[in-house]
Design brief:
This protein is α+β, with helices and mostly antiparallel strands and 740 residues long. It folds into four domains: 125 residues, no CATH class; 117 residues, no CATH class; 208 residues, no CATH class; 149 residues, Lipocalin. Helix content is 57%, strand content 9%. The chain contains 25 helices and nine strands. Strands 1-2-3-4-5-6-7-8 form an eight-stranded antiparallel beta barrel. Strand 4 and strand 5 form a beta hairpin. The N terminus and C terminus are likely disordered. Keywords: Membrane, Transmembrane, Transmembrane helix.
Length: 740
Amino acid sequence: MNIFQEIVTKSEWIIAVLALFLVAWTRFNSPPTNRSGTTFALFFCGAVFYCALIIPLWLVIMIGLVQGSIGFDWIGSKLTQVNPEAQAELAQYAPIVATLIIVVASQFRQVSRIDTAARTFCFKLAAIPREADRLAVELAQGADFEPTERLRRQVTKIISENISPQALDFCRDGTLSARFTRAVALYNLFVAPRSTGEAPEFAGSRHGRSVYALIMQMGETTAARADVRYEELMHSSLAFFTSPQPTHELKELLNCNIAEVTNLTCGLVARYVLFSEITHNGRLQRLSGMGFDARPTPTFGLDQWATTILLVMFLSVAMMVFIPGTRPIPVGHVLTIAITFGVSIGFAVLGAIVVAQRFIARHEEDSPAYPPVAELVIAGLIVVGLSIALRIGIPLLAALTQGDGVQDVLQQFLERLPGTITPFICTISLGFLCCYMGSLRWSWYRLAGIAAIGNGLALTGAGWLVGSLLGDTVLAQFYFHPERAVPTIALSTGLTGLMVGAVVLAVFNKSERIRKDCVERAANDPHMTVSLNDARTVADDIEAPLLSRFAALDDLGGYSRASVETMEGRYVCFRPAFSAADTINAYLLNLHWDEAESCLTFEEAERIDTGHVQKGRVYIPDGRPFLSFVTLEKGAIRLIMVSRPEKSTEPMRGLITTLSNPGGAHFTPASAPIVLKRVVDQAPQLGFVRPGGPDYEAYRSDLETVMPIFGCFATAPYTNSGTELHPDASQRDVRLAVVK
C-alpha cells in the first residue's frame, strides 16, 4: 500500500514534466511546422533547448504557488478553518497547476512575445532553417529526375500541343530543351495537382495526401509564385522554340524562368520529403518513388542496431545461466542486467559508427589519416552518460514494480559503477576498427575475423579491469568464488566483444563500399552534378548548416562570415570602357553572403551591356590587403582584384582583367583600373557615362587614384637599337592614362 501511495505522490511530478515537454514540443512545432525544414535530430535538439528554457520558469511559478503571499498559503489559510489539511493537499498539486499557468499565460500578448523570442533563439541554436534549403538546392541543381510513364505522357502532351515537338527532350544532357522539359515535369509532378484537385501520383496513401495538403497550405505563397513563373516559362519557351533565329535575350529569359520554376518546385518537394520521413534512408526512398535518382544505400540502420542489442542480451543471459561457478539469479534480475548491458553496448555501437562515418567522409582521399581520438572520447563519454541513465532507470522501474526500495537501487548502482567502463572501451575499439577498416575492399569474413579479434581483445581487457574494480561484495552476489571471478568476467565480456565486432564491421563495411561505388558512378556521369546518394550522415547534417552559414572553404580563403559582414551591400562599379577612350562604364554590384555556397558572392546588375553581366565568388586570402571577384563559366575566367577596405565607407580600388571585343568577333585580353563605391543614399549615374555627365568628373578622379598604389601596369622595355635602353627609360614614371 505504501508503494502505491509513493507512486501516486510522484505521479503529479511525472505528469507535470511530461505535460511540460508536450507543451514545448507542440509550440516548437508550430507555426509553421518546423520539422519540415530540418532533420529530426536537429528538431529534437531544438525542442529540448526550448523545454530547458521553460523548466526554470515552471520552477519559479511552482515556488510562488507553494510559498508566495498570494499562492496556496493564502488559499490554504482561508480553508484551514473548514479543513485543517487543505493547505497540504493543495501543495501537492503545485507542479500540475504551474504547468497549466504556463499554458494559459502564453495567450497574453506580452508573454507571447517572450515565448516567440525564446523559440527563435532555439531555432537558431539548433540550426533548423537550413536543411530544406540545402536539399532543395541538391534537387534543383543537378539531381537526376526520371518522370514516371504517366507523367511523361502528360508532359509530352503539354509541350507538343502548346509549344513545339522540338522543345521536348527527356534526355539528361543539360541542353536547353532538356532543362525546359525537366522544369515542366517537376511543376506538373508537385504543384499542378494543387490547382486541379487531383491526388498527386506519388502521394497514394492517406498520410501522403494529408502531408501534401499541409505542405501546400504552408507554402501557399511559394506555390502561387511557381504558378506565375510557370505561365511566364510557357510564354518564353513558345517565343524561343518557335523563333527561326532566337535572340540572346529570349534565351536568357527562358533560362531565368526555367531556374525559377525548378527552384520553387524543388523547395516545396524538399519540405514535403523532410516532413514525411524522419530518417535519411526514408527520405531517399521517398525521393526515389517520386522519380529522383536517390536510391537508398544499405546502412547500419535500426534493424541491424536492434539485432546487435538482442544478440548481446541473449549472450549475456546464456553466460549468466550456463557459465560454471555462477550463482542462481532470479529471472527478473537476469533480464534487468541483460537489457541494461545490451542497450549500453547498442549505444556504444551507434557512437562508434557516427564517428567512423564522419572520419571516412573527411579523409576519403587521405592515406593514412590521424585517428579521431577526441571525437571517439567524446562519443564514449556520451555513451557512458546514457549507460548511467539506463543503470539507474531500468532497475528503478523494476524496483517500483516489485516493491523494492529506491535506496537499494542507488546503492547497487554505486557498487556496479565500474561496469560503465565496458561500453566506453567498446565505443573506442569499434570506432577505430570502423574508421580504418570500414571501407576496405576485403572479403567480409576476413574483415569480420580481424574485427572480432580486435574488439574481443579490447573488451577482454575492459572486463578484466571491471572485475578488478568491483568489490568482493558485488562479485559474491553472482559467483560462488568471488576471488576467482575476474578471469570469468574477462572471458565473458571478451566473447561479447568478439561477436559485436564481427557483426558490426561486416555490415558497416558493406554499406560503405556500396556508398563509395555510388559516388564513383556519379562522378563518372557527366550529366549528374549532384548525387543524393552521397548525402551526409546524421552527424554531418547536424554540423553542416552551422559550417555553411559561418565559414568559407579553405580554397576561398577560409574567411568567416563575421569578418566580411561589413562588406555586404550594394556598390556602384565603374571603369574605363574599352570601346571608347573618353567613356566610363558604370553599373551596380551586389555583394552578399550565400548560405548554399558558404562564401561571399557578387552579382552585377543594371549593366547597359546586359550580355556581359557577371556573377561569382569572392576570394579573400589571409594576411593580404586585396580580395578577388572571380567569375568562372565554361572555361572563361574574369578577375577583379581590388583593395580590401578598412572602413565600410572606403571604396575598393584595383584592376579588372577580362576580354574585350572591339572588332566584334575578335577578342583581346584587356585590363583597366576599377573602383567600387558603396551606394548609400541617392542612386549614382549608371551606363556609359560620357564627359559632361553628372558623375563623370567624380568617377574620373576616383579612377586616377588607382595608380600606382592600388595597381600598376608594366610595359615592355623601350630600346633604341635593340640592345641599349633609352637613357631616360629608367627614370620615367610608369603612369596609366585613364580617361581624359
